[in-house]
Amino acid sequence: MVVALALAAALGYGLSDFLGGLAAKRLHVALVTLLVQAVGGALALVIAVAAGWTSSPDVALWGSVAGAGSALGTLALYRGLAVGRMAVVAPVSAVTAASIPAVVGIVGGERLTALGWIGIVLALPATVLVSRVPDDHEGPTGLREALVAGVGFAVLYLGLHRAGDQAGTWPLVWEMLVSAVLLLPFAWFAWRGPSRGSFTRSPVLMAVGGGILVLGASQLFVVASSDGLAVASIVTSMYPAFTVLLAYAVLRERISGVQGVGLALSAAAVALIAV
Q1: Residue 152: which residues within 8 A CB-CB, separation 6 or more?
Q2: Count of CB atoms within 10 A of residue 109's CB?
Q3: CB atoms within 10 A of CB 71
Q4: In angstroms, rounded to a whole number, what is the distance separating the alpha carbons of residues 241 and 170?
Q5: Domain range spanning residue 193?
Q6: pLDDT tens track for 164-177
Q7: 23-55 burial by CB neighbour count: b if 16+ within 10 A, else e?
Q8: Contact at 8 Å (CB) between 203 and 27?
Q9: How many domains does the chain have?
Q10: What's the pTM?
Q11: Burial class of residue 88 (count of CB atoms within 10 Å of its CB; 0-12, 13-18, 19+)
């Protein structure tokens, strides 16, 4: 069940990234990110109130920690992609985000089968290979920003895990709204700048869809991690595979040989972890 839920979370995150990427072609990425977080947080709040769930100081604290991690990771990732090499930034951030919670879970006493260990060993390089894209960028690699982004997203995973699934969507209310508040100044400067893009219906709808998907994916991760943080974080962090497959199916983007190997390893890793 943990693997199925985490895989569904990875699908949701992959779909959200795909929609966010399309929206960012027409609207500044800071504005897209703010919309995604604000929409997801508002919807999470409506669901929490309608369902009669209640928050607590611990849920608010850990949800807010997750929101700070999300904002830090997002800003560092975009900075790294802007100044560094995408072929370095994307895989390093993804593997760092997966590894830290996995180590925390294993140190905390989680046990894996021999095949599960083999699956995790395959999952990390699979994420690297799927995320790699050829580029001819010269200059800084963006490694520092990639590591910071990975730590930020690891904090996001750990914060959501610690908040738990007993309060329904309240952890996500705090996470997304805190993240949106922290991202607001950057979105404001983007809005006032010449490169803000076109604030039209199409990118806004894509961002709204991204927010709904992120909410669903995050809730699935919270539930999955309650039964196994290590497995949930590793499998969820394989979401770039779904983004790559969507780009191929919808936009007809070419899948490189390296990415193809990564996709095959991803499928093998999930199968082994699920055994």
Answers
A1: 69, 70, 71, 72, 73, 74, 75, 76, 77, 97
A2: 6
A3: 23
A4: 29
A5: 2-274
A6: 989 999 999 999 99
A7: bbeebbbbbbbbbbbbbbbbbbbebbeeeeeeb
A8: yes
A9: 1
A10: 0.88
A11: buried
